[in-house]
Structure of ABC transporter ATP-binding protein:
Amino acid sequence: MGIQFKQVSKRYGGANSPLVVQGIDFVVPKGSLTTILGPSGCGKTTTLRMIAGLEAPSGGQILIDGVDVTHLGPSERNVSMVFQSYALFPHMNVIGNVRYGLDVSGVHKAEAQERAQKSLALVGLAGYEERLPSELSGGQQQRVALARALVLEPSVLLFDEPLSNLDARLRRSMRDEIRHLQQRLGLTVAYVTHDQSEALAVSDQIIVMEAGRIAQAGTPQDLYERPTSAFVAGFMGEAVLFDGQSLHDGSVQLGPLRLVPRHAVTPGAARAAVRPEAWVVGRELSGGESLPGSLSAELKQWSYLGSFVELTFDTELGQVFVVSPEVERDWRIGQVLALSLPGRGVSVVAV
Ligand SMILES: Nc1ncnc2c1ncn2[C@@H]1O[C@H](COP(=O)(O)OP(=O)(O)OP(=O)(O)O)[C@@H](O)[C@H]1O
């Protein structure tokens, strides 16, 4: 069953203070990984802390594996949390940190030692038992924190921005390791992040939160390819919004461009969220020429970024930002090119 939220809300302080979580419902199925994604202040950490029992909800019900845990304390829930700051005991060596939870819950010494060693091996740190946290890299410290959470064999494992103190390369490898371990051990995980690429990479389900509510929940592909609001589209992929008109035949007119949305939209004002990689840059146009079905665009700026180029154009729709794989092309500031939107990467969202 995993984790279930039923109409859960939260306010800090008295009855007049605002609800920072506003009656949300979701399920994290057993053995799967859900990320809670959203901008700063949207209520992600509060939601995670309510799963952990570190905050009490102001209303609603929280179930873990079908059991109502709404009023249980953190130690009564069989939940472990890995924090952004690692929260290791600095004076204790690695094995001491990992077995701490077992020691305080009265597990026999020999068993605690054996389980801690197994857990360290799981995160690739066998042989580091005697080191102090200060003698480890950031990535290794985060692995110790992970081993310390895993050793308790929790029914739910929670991560609060676990990678934000690591550099970009390490972040990617730790992210993949967490996902690999979660799948191998069949762990039920809720994972808070504000980084959409991290969420896309590790999740079975992504829940996007906006101001205390769930803006949209679904698979990574659902959210990336089929955002239902401008907020989600913008949050998931640097999409730029353009105002247009939806017509009676179901298409949407965006300046000279005609799009066919995946879902029917009512005729009238419409808005399209276009990701930078959705644009295709066609041929150069000569003085005043225009191509039917394409947007004339003057190149204002471009940057080479190794495997792709970033291009900024002026067009009748305003500034258009494009990411193109054509790194070898002879890009020149001032040239006028034909842009088109052949398909993927465009979503028509509510106005
Ligand atoms: N202990 C607290 N007392 C009062 N208000 C709080 C407390 N903790 C959080 N808040 C408020 O609740 C709202 C949600 O905070 P929360 O930390 O859950 O957001 P978040 O999405 O995790 O943000 P961030 O990414 O910045 O951590 C914010 O407006 C915040 O100021």
